[in-house]
Amino acid sequence: MPEVFYLPGGKPEDGESPEETLVRELNEELGGTPRDMDMLGRVEDMAALEGVPMRMSVFMARLAGRPQPAAELAALGWTDGRDSYEPRLAPAVRNQVPPLLIELSGTVQDRSFGP
Fold first, then answer.
1. Which of 26, 67, 89, 109 is 20 to 30 A from 9 in CA distance terms?
2. In the chain, what is the greatest distance between 2 CA atoms, to the nearest angstrom?
3. Alpha carbons 42 and 23: distance in angstroms, whole number
4. What is the pTM of this model?
């Protein structure tokens, strides 16, 4: 089992919008195409591997197709941020994403996400 879990994604290529980056990265890393994309926010934190400041655009989306780990992903996992995955979430994910979801819970409660 992996020691650290990250969100799928990556750095934008030159001239690529955050939405275009999301589409490309989810295709490369999960073999699917996002639909119903909503940007939850843009956050700043420290990159776990590089130890440098980073900016992250966080989206919520449905995925067309069944996700399969590809590229640098070793495994997939689902979490609500309050279970056994919590200590293994990358610091930027752990520090930034659950608070975004809690803050926006009133606006996204009618949508279902997951496998």
1. 109
2. 38
3. 17
4. 0.78
